[in-house]
Design a protein that fits this description.
Length: 158
């Protein structure tokens, strides 16, 4: 059996807000552009919530992707898989998992991004030289964008 040579990138952050509030923001799958600095615009494309929800995102600096929720644990985590797009690298799959862990009045948020390149050796070289250096910026931008959005939202309530 051949070893899966997928790439995994991960980032975590502590958000000064309870898990219920963080979940309230992220469960609205089509609104990722509210807080993710690499997403120019986003929208729900099937008006579903949870498993089977789909969104379309225009990306910065260019490109677009369509994602579908393939795993959902209400209040705790979800996994979304890229199911289409424009100007994306040649991948067998791209998946992102967002996990929340309550820490009293705070929440630990972890985003894990996995992808597997196509094209064999050429794909692995492209990944090492071009793709991974670009993609490794996404998980920290996702969790830090979420942190800034929620904490500024909370500060405006005080």
């Amino acid at each position: 059996m051949k070893k899966d040579s997928s790439t995994q990138l991960k980032a975590s952050v502590i958000i000064n807000a309870p898990q219920e509030l963080v979940w309230k923001v992220v469960r609205n799958f089509g609104k990722i552009s509210d807080f993710h600095p690499l997403v120019k615009s986003s929208k729900s494309i099937n008006e579903k919530e949870g498993l089977g929800a789909k969104r379309y995102c225009e990306l910065l600096p260019m490109g677009a992707m369509e994602e579908e929720v393939v795993q959902w644990t209400d209040g705790v985590s979800f996994t979304a898989e890229v199911i289409g797009g424009k100007m994306l690298p040649p991948c067998h799959y791209m998946k992102g998992m967002l996990e929340l862990e309550s820490r009293g009045s705070q929440t630990r948020v972890t985003f894990t991004f996995n992808y597997l390149m196509k094209l064999g050796l050429i794909g692995r070289l492209m990944n090492a030289i071009i793709i991974k250096p670009q993609f490794k910026k996404a998980p920290p931008k996702y969790v830090n964008g979420l942190k800034n959005y929620i904490e500024s939202m909370e500060a405006s309530r005080v």
